[in-house]
Amino acid sequence: MTLFRAEGLTVSFSRAGERAVLFENAALSLEEAAVYDLVGPSGSGKSTLLRACARMIERDGGALYLNGAPSDAVALTKWRRQVCLVPQKPSLVSGTVRDNLVLPWTLKVHAGERPPSDSELANLLDRAALGDVELGRDVSQLSGGQLARVALLRAFATKPPVLLLDEVDAALDPDSARAIGRLTRLLVGESMTCLRIRHRAADGFAAGTFELKDGALSYRENPSQAAIGGSAPGRTGSARQSAPVAAGREGGLR
Amino acid sequence: MSAGVVDIGYVELFAASALMLVAGIVSYKLELGQTRRIAVSVVRCFVQLLAAGFVLEYLFAWQTWWLVLLALVFMISAATQIATSRVKSEVKGLIPAVFVSLFVSSVAVGLIVVEGVIHADPWYNARQLVPIAGMIIGNAMSAIAVAIDRLFSDLDSRSDEMFTLVALGATAREAAFPSIKAAIAAGMTPVLATMSAAGIVTIPGMMSGQLLAGADPLAAAKYQIVVMLMLSAANTIAIVMACFLTYRKRFAADGYYLDKGIRE
């Protein structure tokens, strides 16, 4: 079943007084229980595409749907709670691992919801091979790989239907990056979908790969993951670039 | 002790400016490059204070509520310009928010003190209202400058954290709140420090002025206590208003933080 759909996404920005189109009419569709990769050269707009999906950047056009419902009908904070973007830098707040994992429940968008208990959090840490990390440990004492996994777990803990990962494994060694990939695949489970930007070689956990290049979004299914599924209405993704531009995280946009 | 202010003759006044030669010589000898600035400051000090003296003399003689209000608006406008120019981060559109914050805090607290504590007659009596409002505006101006400067430097340094919070579903206010709290605390610090040091380290300006004018020390102390409490209240109102009215300048209408790369 299609969980998330984007149609006709267009984002442009002004540079030196001129409007430059980063991508135009990009379309994608994400099936539930699947992980997808988003690849493309630096500056092609991958991070901006994720931001557009999370409604965290101004769009020139395009429509977003979650479970078939258009984004316009959903309040912004509620949308972001359901289409959750995890940025490249694992930005944790000062405090303990527990403080960070329950941080989302301090926000109004989770008002009335019960935060996970310590045993549920410990179970989550176990699944991420962080069983030796105590909930009371200060995050300043975690390694880079552990920080990345805690940031990922914080997003997973809120059980968003759609998870957007912006190169969360970029700064990690190959083993830690593979652990993140395995964790992502494991946690996505049956009711979520995940689109992740990656610059590394395919790790075999993704059902399909979207490629953003020269403003055009294309899609190919990964043969080894064909059984998991992943349709590609977005493979049309006609796009053009009116001027040589660089954006996304690499170009100053995130 | 004789009551009344000791008037200083213009000859003595200009002779006193020779005291600034100390600063001028230090600047010249140590090549500080401040000589011109010192000269300009001395001239500004003379011109502005003498002009204020003349204006106040006129205002005290011909006071009407609208003339007093006009004087307050002028003072607040100047304070707004000075406070916003002290903010190091580049933030557009601060002026209206700072003006409103200064206006509301100084007029509200000033009127409470003039009407409720000093019992001025009439309530807009310029002899009481203008100096009191001046103290409030001057202090609130410095407090706002400190608070807003801290607010935007803190917001900019927390951009990654705020991005994450908004991505998790936080509103702009929730994402900015730690910075707002830090800014309000920073803005409140100077007046609280002055209150702690008052009477031990320093004899505050208003009390000094009253003592020099021959007032009873206990009466001057009571006056100063009221002034300190008034400044603390007005500063708090001013900085809270200024922070809540300005933090959205760093956020898009859709509630996400505007990184430097995507600010228009």
UniProtKB/TrEMBL annotation, chain B:
Principal subcellular localisation of the protein: membrane
Membrane protein topology class: Multi-pass membrane protein
Annotated TM spans: 6-26, 38-59, 65-83, 95-118, 130-152, 182-203, 223-247
Domain of life: Bacteria
UniProt-recorded name of the protein: Iron export ABC transporter permease subunit FetB
Protein keywords: Membrane, Transmembrane, Transmembrane helix
Species for this entry: Raoultibacter timonensis
Family: Belongs to the UPF0014 family.
Subcellular location: Membrane
InterPro entries given in the database record: UPF0014_fam
Higher taxonomy: Bacteria, Bacillati, Actinomycetota, Coriobacteriia, Eggerthellales
